[in-house]
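Milestone 3.1: sequence recovery, worked example.
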């Protein structure tokens, strides 16, 4: 469902219902959105696509939620993913278990998850983009940040776009983009 939000195919008047389902306790483990609701008969917290949490899927869902303006939910997923990453040496695995966070002190790794995994390594960048609401528009970058207090100030230097380098800085709901002199 998060991929549908990302694609923009969900009518605006239905987006809230999709987001509400994704963030429900049946789908959101506290470490991320599961691949299958724990209310489904086939649910298995360690089943490959039967209830595990995939970082790249969560980042795509977060980008979709940002598209529809669900910034609190973007931040909730982002915080969960970054906190999970701390438990994996700051490197997200391909997948982690779908066990509820309130039952586990740490995210349980999926037994055969690849780490590093290419699409999982891209997830933090997509999550940052969702929190920053960063977009390329007509030869420039636009920014509308909503950065959780837990992250403090975010700064990215030498961001390449349109053949130029940019500096991006944001804290809370304020931020700026500056073209660097190279």
């Amino acid at each position: 469902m998060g991929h549908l939000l990302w694609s923009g195919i969900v009518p605006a008047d239905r987006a809230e219902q999709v987001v509400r389902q994704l963030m429900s306790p049946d789908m959101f483990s506290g470490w991320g959105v599961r691949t299958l609701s724990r209310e489904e008969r086939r649910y298995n917290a360690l089943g490959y696509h039967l209830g595990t949490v995939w970082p790249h899927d969560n980042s795509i869902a977060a980008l979709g939620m940002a598209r529809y303006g669900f910034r609190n939910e973007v931040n909730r997923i982002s915080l969960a993913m970054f906190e999970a990453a701390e438990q994996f040496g700051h490197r997200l695995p391909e997948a982690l278990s779908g066990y509820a966070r309130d039952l586990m002190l740490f995210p349980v790794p999926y037994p055969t998850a690849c780490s590093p995994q290419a699409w999982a390594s891209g997830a933090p960048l997509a999550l940052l983009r969702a929190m920053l609401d960063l977009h390329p528009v007509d030869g420039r970058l636009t920014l509308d940040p909503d950065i959780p207090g837990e992250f403090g100030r975010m700064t990215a230097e030498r961001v390449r776009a349109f053949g130029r380098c940019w500096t991006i800085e944001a804290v809370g709901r304020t931020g700026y983009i500056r073209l660097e002199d190279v």
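The radius of gyration is 17 Å. The mean pLDDT is 95.
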